[in-house]
Amino acid sequence: MIIQDLKIPVDYDEEMLLAKISKEARIPRKKIRTYRILRRSLDARKKPQLYYVMKLAVNEGVSYEPAVSEKYRRKVPEEKKQRIFIAGSGPAGLFAALALTEAGVPVTVLERGHDVQKRTEDVEKFFESGILDPVSNVQFGEGGAGTFSDGKLNTRTTDPDGLNQKVLYEFYRAGAPEEILYDAKPHVGTDILKTVVRNLREKIILSGGEFRFSTLVSDLLITDGKLAGIYVENSDEPDLPKELIPASRLILACGHSARDTYEMLYGHGAVMEEKSFAVGVRIEHPQEMITRAQYGGTEGAPDAASYQLAAKTRTGRGVYSFCMCPGGYVVNASSEPECLAVNGMSYSGRSGRNANSGIVVQVSPEDYPGSGPLSGIAFQREMEARAYQAAGGRIPVQCYRDFREGRRTESLGEIAPDMKGQYGFANLREVLPEAVSEAILEAMPEFGRKIKGFDRPDAVMSAVESRTSSPVRILRDEGGESSIRGLYPSGEGAGYAGGIVSSAIDGIKTASHVIDSLLCGSACVSDGSQAATY
Question: H/E element holding 221?
Answer without folding.
Answer: strand 215-223
